[in-house]
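Why do we care about 3D structure at all? Because function follows from shape, and shape follows, mostly, from sequence. That is the central idea of this module. The next example makes it concrete: a single protein chain, its amino acid sequence, and then its structure expressed as tokens.
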Amino acid sequence: MDLTILLGDSAQVSPDNKVHALGLGWTATRTPLPPHAVIILFDIPWNETNHVFVAKVRLVDADGNPVHQLTPMGEQPIEVEAQFEAGRPPGLPPGTSLTMPLAFNLPPGTPVRPGRYEWRVEVDGEERANWRRGFLVVEQQASPRVA
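And the structure:
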């Protein structure tokens, strides 16, 4: 299995497995984090279809430590877990790979320090170096004053 991770301003997956997204491709943002989306396109080979996968997506800092946010249950790591399965549609030629999308949106306001961060994906306990998407967080720029 391979996958592609994209960062955007917002995204959703339609019932027919299309991703509708806005503001794709950014690599830098400000703190506190504005609303944003993580889009993952799983490329599933024929021999891995009809198998239930468990994906974990987590936000880590430059040192690989999980980033936490305050919730009603206390500080929690920023992570998402999802199960998915790509079935073989009738008539699909043997050997054809399938794309399974996953998208989730994060609300604004996560207070992170300026620096490098990564979204990392783990599938069935396996993590690969190319299953990551890094981005830079910079200080919020002050608005110019109008005299």
